[in-house]
Design the sequence.
């Protein structure tokens, strides 16, 4: 066997899957009884608008086959969605079965008119008004529509399952990198995603980063939490940060598999953002405008990497960082290179090998001098 054949044989056994055909009604019953699970944290991934949902229903009514769905079998035997969240949640919402994160049931979906079925406008699954309720025949067509499920069986390599999920979602733009990452963190260890969401919703953190609604909807707050946990006490070397998004993917799955590290990381996260909230505030991750004598603009990764990760480095190593956080934030943006080379944008790994050491120097107590040389 040559090397290529050996690689193919090894990779093929990492994911074991069965193909199952079932009706929408059968899939809905699995969800209702708890066998098919959609994690509450995934509620933030329901991003289809009414038009997209209505087009899915149109496809079913017109007899157009849907792409395969992928589910991962947990050790308990239950299924978690790996791919098809938007389609499954739409089918459940249409029937009035989809649960919110608090356990309440979402109202049945009200459809919009589509290109081929304009009279879908205003139709719903159940109504006191027969004029707007889908007919018994139409509902039966939907319930009996066949779906192909690929079931990733217990024992499949978690990293291989993560790679599969990335590949499945690389052909469209429905999910961000973090949304895909969150899906497989949950698949590896659902408690890990719950913990990360808890950190992302911590008041001191949300007040400091002050992200836009769009970034929160795309789970960028959770990505910032992961970046913080991964990088705050990490040895800095360009080789160790290359292809950063993929490295963050791998590290996240390893984190999910190792709960023993969570308590210490939780403590460092809490102490860091409590400290920053008490001594800084919501401006510290924005740009300082010397000419206007104020902070302006939106959240900046560069400031987060310098100020937050710099402070966390010292706290994690038993030292207090400097307390004059706003002064540190202003000092950062008074370095000329911050407004020239860094303003044009750098690849994440190229930026991090500069910002992490800079932050550790700037946030020391007493602070070390920082100059443009630190960014060259």
Sequence:
């Amino acid at each position: 066997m040559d090397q290529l054949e050996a690689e193919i044989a090894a990779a093929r056994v990492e994911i074991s899957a069965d193909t199952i055909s079932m009706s929408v009604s059968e899939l809905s019953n699995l969800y209702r009884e708890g066998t098919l699970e959609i994690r509450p944290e995934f509620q933030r991934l329901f991003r289809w608008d009414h038009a997209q949902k209505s087009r899915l229903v149109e496809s079913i009514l017109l007899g157009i086959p849907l792409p395969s769905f992928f589910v991962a079998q947990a050790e308990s035997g239950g299924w978690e969605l790996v791919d098809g969240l938007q389609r499954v949640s739409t089918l459940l919402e249409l029937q009035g079965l989809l649960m919110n994160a608090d356990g309440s049931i979402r109202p049945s979906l009200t459809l919009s008119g589509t290109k081929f079925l304009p009279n879908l406008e205003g139709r719903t699954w159940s109504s006191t008004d027969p004029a707007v309720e889908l007919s018994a025949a139409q509902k039966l067509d939907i319930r009996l529509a066949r779906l192909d499920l690929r079931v990733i069986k217990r024992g499949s390599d978690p990293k291989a399952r993560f790679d599969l999920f990335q590949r499945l979602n690389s052909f469209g733009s429905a999910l961000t990198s973090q949304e895909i990452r969150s899906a497989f963190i949950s698949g590896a260890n659902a408690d890990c995603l719950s913990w990360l969401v808890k950190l992302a919703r911590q008041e001191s953190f949300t007040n400091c980063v002050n992200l836009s609604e769009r970034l929160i909807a795309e789970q960028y707050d959770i990505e910032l939490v992961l970046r913080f946990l991964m990088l705050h006490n990490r040895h800095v070397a360009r080789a160790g940060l290359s292809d950063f998004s993929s490295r963050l993917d791998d590290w996240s799955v390893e984190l999910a598999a190792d709960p023993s590290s969570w308590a210490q990381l939780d403590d460092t996260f809490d102490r860091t953002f409590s400290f920053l909230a008490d001594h800084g505030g919501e401006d510290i991750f924005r740009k300082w405008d010397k000419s206007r004598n104020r902070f302006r603009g939106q959240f900046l990764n560069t400031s987060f990497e310098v100020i937050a990760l710099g402070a966390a480095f010292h706290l994690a190593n038993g030292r207090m960082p400097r307390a004059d956080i706003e002064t540190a934030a202003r000092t950062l943006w008074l370095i000329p290179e911050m407004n020239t080379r860094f303003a044009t944008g750098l690849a994440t790994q190229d930026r991090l090998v500069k910002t992490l050491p800079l932050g550790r120097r700037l946030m020391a107590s007493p602070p070390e001098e920082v100059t443009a040389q630190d960014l060259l």
The chain has a mean pLDDT of 84. The CA atoms of residues 113 and 363 lie 57 Å apart. The first strand starts at residue 17 and ends at 23.
